[in-house]
Amino acid sequence: MHIAFFDSGLGGLSIVRELFEHPQAQGLGVTQCSYIADTAQFPYGDKDDAWLSDRIVQVIAASINAIKPDLVVVACNTASTLALGPLREHFAIPFVGVVPAIKPAAQQSQSHVVGILATPATVARDYTAQLIANYAQDTSVHLYGAAALVAQAENKLLGNAVDQHTITRALHALLALDATQTLDTVVLACTHFPLLREELTAAAPYPIQWVDSGEAIARRVMQLCEGAKAAPLSSVNTPLQLITTGGELAEHYERLRFKIGPQQGTYTFASHNVLAFSDSCK
Ligand code: DGL
């Protein structure tokens, strides 16, 4: 089984990590993993919807052609809340989308006041509004588009300085939307944000529960892999190949060293395949 993870940048590694660290993933029949990053158009959170939807389909189409995965995890809320429909129409392989974890957050909140930190695009999506209408009827939900956190998460993974003030400002801007001051649960509705959990916790003026979709996605992927047999997931058995759309960011990714699981050591991408696109629409 070959699983491909897709994101604009490195945020999808928070989902890769959930799968690789999951205790039940060890017997999983995954022989190969690929990580697709649209580095030439990173970030996605401020792009026009119609253009972005076409772009995502194009990049995933080219990736499917190049690497023939059995399953694609759209490890990006901004992409999933927009393009899951078109992707499923275009391709026969299964897609697992990552969308804001609004249902578990509404269930876990004691105060029934929940915050959502996402990209401005995810905050504005009908898909997000629909999740709130379906699963958080008895909950006050406050949304904040925190584009600046995406860059901070990239900085952290790439070993650059992280600006704690930017993180504190974003969290406090979300908390300020709640006049009752009882918000107790925050959905990390961008795959980059779980990578900043320690910094967000340090920025919180009181204890907050952070909720994301990572574990649920890992479980869904494991269900879809059932029946496939191979060696356990590990840095030795499961090379992670990198697919990018090029540019300076892609060169930084090539040199990246990162930890995925507690027992699985440090990863580097095993190979790098650059897909070329014309960047005419912005
Ligand atoms: N990681 C992405 C998400 O889950 C998007 C970040 C961006 O490109 O703005 O929404």
Key traits:
alpha/beta, 11 helices, 282 residues, Rossmann fold, 4-stranded parallel β-sheet, 6-stranded parallel β-sheet, globular
Could you explain how this protein is built, in words?
The protein starts with a strand and ends in an 8-residue tail after the last strand. The chain has a 6-stranded parallel beta sheet with strand order 4-3-1-2-9-12, with helices on both faces. A 4-stranded parallel beta sheet has the order 6-5-7-8, with helices on both faces. Strands 10-11 form a two-stranded antiparallel sheet. The protein is globular and about 50 Å long. The protein folds into 2 domains: 2-98 and 214-274, Rossmann fold (3-Layer(aba) Sandwich), CATH 3.40.50.1860; 102-211, Rossmann fold (3-Layer(aba) Sandwich). Strand 7 (185-188), helix 9 (197-203) and strand 8 (209-211) form a beta-alpha-beta unit. Helices cover 41% and strands 18% of the residues. With 282 residues, it is an alpha/beta fold. The protein has 11 helices and 12 strands. D-glutamic acid (DGL) is lined by residues 7-9, 11, 42-45, 76-78, 119, 122, 150, 190-192. Belongs to the aspartate/glutamate racemases family. Provides the (R)-glutamate required for cell wall biosynthesis. It holds the Pfam family Asp_Glu_race. One of its GO terms (molecular function) is glutamate racemase activity. Pathway: Cell wall biogenesis; peptidoglycan biosynthesis.
